[in-house]
Amino acid sequence: MLDIFDILGPVMVGPSSSHTAGAVRIGRMARTLLGGAPVKADIGLYGSFAETGRGHGTDRALVAGVLGMRPDDLRIPQSFELAKEEGLDFYIHPIQLREAHPNTVVLKLRRADGNELMLQAASVGGGRIRVDKLNGVEVQFTGDLNTLVVQHQDVAGKVADETRELSNAGINIATMSLWRDRRGGDALIVIETDQKVSEAVRQKILDLPDVKRLTYYEKEED
Amino acid sequence: MALDSMQEIFEKMQEGQKPFWKVVQDTDVEERQVSPEASFEKMRMTWKAMLETVDTYRGDLRSLSGLVGGDGQRMAEFAASGKALAGDYLSQVITLALCTAESNACMRKIVAAPTAGACGVLPAVLIPLYRQEVPEEEIVQGLYVAAGIGAVIAYRACIAGASGGCQAEIGSASAMAAGTLTAIRGGSAEQIGHATAMALKNLMGLVCDPVAGLVEVPCVKRNVVGAVNAASCADMALAGIESRIPVDQVIDCMGDVGHRMPEEFRETALGGLAATPMGQMVKQQMEERK
Predict the structure, then answer these.
(1) pLDDT tens digits for B82-108?
(2) pTM for the whole thing?
(3) Is A195 domain-assigned?
(4) Are A151 and A120 in the same domain?
(5) CA distance B116 to chain A (A)
(6) Contact, A145 vs A221, CB < 8 A?
């Protein structure tokens, strides 16, 4: 069932839970998964986000999220100006996608050190979001739980190695999904956990052979 | 443990000899694995956020389209002049519904209840009671009642305009508010059910037809109708007037009406007021500004 604070909540800057609050969350999710402040953001809007996004402040909300703001931050309407101050160069434009949720955005972020992230996500109602694509791989997670995203070489035993580290740390896995682009290529594992995953545990996973990249999104505490 | 029907909540009230709000709080404690105190504190912060919205309301704010703003102030001034038809309580209800819903349209901070578009209904009926010295604790308990009713509606029907039209947003908010008012005024479980059912019935069939797709016209003023409807349904229930159709059946029916509603009337901005010549003109102006 829905959390009762999804019924009375979120506490948010208006005007629309899907077009504003959800958009902030997507932006913030992308920034977190990038693992640092982006200097460049390419923001592609699809469907209703492109159609009525401006009137709902979707554009400003996405930039606010990319700057690290939460949905109840009163500075959301001024995010364009704040982006300039913080040295974030952004470009917003409509895009065409096939078979995507009507409230979809494709974000491409780049950090000063060249690290990049591509994320496709949808705002699915009531401020809740769903990530549909990460760095070219189809995924599905919501950020309602602590989320660990590990990219590794598609070789036998990787999943067992990674989940063993979680098990050793007493972390319960709520859901887990595995994707790969091709056999032996890049594989992506998305693990949603009930407990927080500490920096030390994350480092242990990252130190495993064939693990290329690890990103972590900690559930919003409000 | 989930809240699947109003009947189930009533039975739990009976079994545990608990008030409505406590049954809902127990569910939250179970679901999120938090203490009752932590749950209550979070709900209290939700209430504080509702108060903050009206305390920081500014009549000079305008929405992104420029269509919305200043009406809360207009209504407050008219009420203060003593010329309003509505008495003190209802005048405040109308004013506060406008202030909160306008704040939402102007990108201020609000509490979605159950949605951002319907954020004005619940605070509008509760804040005047709080000002009349109903203690904060009782108001916060009332918010649990609202959340419980909303959870049942979300489970059995829907609470999004895109799913079920405005009846699912303002209608649900109004039903939540009616049940809450009835509980705060000491109504029985049955009376809470009747108030909820009547409020939802009265707004059944209401379409979601936002001009240019924005949460502005007619959304802001529909918060007023939702709030005033809630007050009248609570009073009817407390007077002993009953809904002839049981509350869970009314909720199911609202969901059914919503699913059968043509797409044009479910937040697509293709029908209703959005399709009027004026509605179309506004849309065109917004597109030119893109």
Answers:
(1) 999 999 999 999 999 999 999 999 999
(2) 0.91
(3) yes
(4) no
(5) 5
(6) no
